[in-house]
Amino acid sequence: MAQQASNHPMDPAGPTGKLCTWIDAVKLSDIPESVRTRAKYLILDGIGCALVGAHLPWSEKAVNVFLDIDPPGKCALFGWDKKLSPLTAALLNSTFIQGFELDDWHSEGPLHSNSILLPSLFASLPLLNAPISGPQFLLSYLVGLETGPRVGNALYGTYILTQGWHSGAVFGPSASAAAVSKLFELDAAQVEDALGIACTQACGLMSAQFESEVKRMQHGFPARNGLMAALLARGGYVGIKKVYEREFGGFLDMFSKGNGKDPQFQIENLTEGLGSVWKAENVKLKPYAAMAATHPTVDCIRKLQEQDGEKMKDFDNIESITFEMADAAYSHGGFEVQRPLTTTGAQMSCMYVTATQMVDNQVMPQQFRHDMLNRDLVWDLVSKMKCKPNTEWKSFKQSAEVKFKDGKTIKGHVENARGNDPELSNDEIVEKFRGLMKGVIDDKRRDEIERCVLGLDGCGDMMELCELLEGVSMNPIA
């Protein structure tokens, strides 16, 4: 008689085994109501970002490539009237969410969770034999929110960015595989297979932040690959066992080699406080359409504009602007830029982004239209700017010093970024969503999406929301 497969992980007491067992066992009622409520607003923000990004030039370019090579499928593309295969839909919908640097980020193990979780979960819906309720979807989403940052923290979180890895593309396959595994109701042994299949596909080069458009797609790879991993595990395909703690070729060992840390990685962070400390609480949302490390730089300039608005408008009188920032922010956004600059490069640059704040008093999608990227006034200000690292500073602490030709100097300092501390409130998230939807979809559709997302507790079939996301949306920078 054939031996019956176990529904337990290979080593239930090990780090991978503990995580898989928790993913299998956790119920929505185990999660605090405040965390569940906040998650619905996070989902609303992610959907807004997707609809804004759906018809940006780089998004349309990617969609057209896949429309040429993929047959029609049954999984919707957000903001389009097209359907493609599950894996392609997950990849492209993620590209939309990441399309304009408007989406969420995690303050510890940095990744953009919505661009990983929402595309893989929505692409899963047509693959299931029964309707998925709002509470089921929400629970799966929350499992992903917990998993990704824990994997990131085991690799020292933001440190991996300073090494040139695109952290979300490294941590993200675990998050996607965990979330979809929960939606598929896989047992702990199958979850271990899914994570093992997902982790071997992890990668992401941060050099994508310069000239390329692929930076928009790099969270799509884990969205797609985590979904594929869960599908394979559901079909009985065996993944890498004990993938996080393996000594030879294990995930944490390989992505931490040569980092000079002692210990090389922090495997206890994978499961410490699991089920009592909620990493979902540290998902942050962006008030500006730019990479997160640029936000405190903008906040410094905003503070100076509030402090001495007339002086800050006297651009001809400005001699120099110096920004000081923590090493991770400097490595990520403090690089020198030269014209011409792509939209991606502009949104990644502390200097360019803050120049737009000085000129336009805002940093939103329209600041990065092609006709706005080559403005002499913006580039004159950029030429006066310099960024320097402070190895003693952590996280988003930054300062700005503006020297004027008349001898005056003004300084601004922030300990953190707006959106991180203080966080955007739930009301501010709704305000952001409604603002982003202006000119992108009509008000009736906007209100229906908002009603459906914030009412997930009473949603009997998530395809209702999925259908609202299918209709065509407009390009906000056309």
TrEMBL record:
Superkingdom to which the source organism belongs: Eukaryota
- What is a GO molecular function of this protein? lyase activity
Residues annotated as domain MmgE/PrpD C-terminal: 288-451
Q: Which InterPro entries match?
A: MmgE/PrpD_sf, MmgE/PrpD_sf_1, MmgE_PrpD, MmgE_PrpD_C, MmgE_PrpD_N
Return the Gene3D superfamilies for the record: 2-methylcitrate dehydratase PrpD (1.10.4100.10)
Span of domain MmgE/PrpD N-terminal = 18-262
Pfam families associated with the record: MmgE_PrpD_C, MmgE_PrpD_N
Q: Which residues form the signal peptide?
A: none
**Protein family (similarity comment):** Belongs to the PrpD family.
Question: What is the protein name stated in its UniProt record?
Answer: Related to immune-responsive protein 1
Q: Taxonomic classification, please?
A: Eukaryota, Fungi, Dikarya, Ascomycota, Pezizomycotina
